[in-house]
Amino acid sequence: MQLVIDNICKDFTNRKGQSLPVLENISLTVREQEFIAIVGPSGCGKSTLLNLTAGLLEPSSGKISFTDVRPGYQPHMSIVFQETGLFPWRSVYDNVAFGLEAKNVPADEKKQRVQKYIELVGLKGFESAYPHQLSGGMRQRAGIARAMSIEPDLLLMDEPFSALDAQTRTIMQEELVTLWEKTRLTTLYVTHNIQEAVMLADRIVLLSRRPGRISQIITVDVPRAERSLPQHTEAIAGFTRTIWEHISKDARAALMEVENNE
Ligand SMILES: Nc1ncnc2c1ncn2[C@@H]1O[C@H](COP(=O)(O)OP(=O)(O)OP(=O)(O)O)[C@@H](O)[C@H]1O
Ligand SMILES: [Mg+2]
What we know:
By secondary structure, the protein is an alpha/beta fold. It has a domain of 110 residues: P-loop containing nucleotide triphosphate hydrolases (Rossmann fold, 3-Layer(aba) Sandwich), CATH 3.40.50. α2 runs parallel beside α4. The longest helix is centred in the C-terminal third of the chain and has 24 residues. It has a six-stranded mixed sheet with strand order 5-6-7-3-8-9, sandwiched between helices. The site of magnesium ion has 3 residues, from α1.
């Protein structure tokens, strides 16, 4: 299965009734088992692109489709947001089970899958804990387990670690690398964080300042599991530098910009 984003444009209407172009001519093919990071300055339309892909928004023009799927098959997608959106009244176990219940997965398989993903994200022993009893990192793990447990054709993640402190974030990044190597779910991952993108992605899509256009696509050709090894430090720093050089001007401008849609 491939995700094909074909010449997408998206305009919003602001409060004054003016049309605000947010995404312009976005074309991208995401291959099966590929991890794509989308990086760009604040307000350039990253979340909008993810929401369009999830079908939560309609494009103004262009088309998003899946190729290589059997006729009539509706690909499954999961989305992880910055805030996990766990149900506070459900335990970790029941939160992870939620997506499987919605899909009517038989009881035995449900139990086995919930346990598998709780274990994979390192929450074994916390099955009966409630979200308020967990740290931010643990809540995010539960959210990721919930998203992965349905074994989606496409995993969408919108800055899932940005609310975490720096150390937890680094740990979660490393764990996501390990987890992803085990699951190899086709993933579209939005982040502000260049270093995070370089550690996680096969390809990094750079978006320009609003209206977001693809300004460059960078292939990180160092095996994911080896990216933190000393022999690759220079190569990894090189990617980080290239990306920063590419987007710093836009990022500064976005920072200074008075949002004209307000
Ligand atoms: N429903 C909406 N109606 C009107 N304008 C919107 C709507 N959703 C987003 N926008 C505007 O579209 C632009 C892009 O928003 P989006 O949330 O996609 O950016 P982003 O790249 O995810 O930003 P950030 O990095 O801050 O999360 C912003 O200017 C935002 O104000
Ligand atoms: Mg966003």
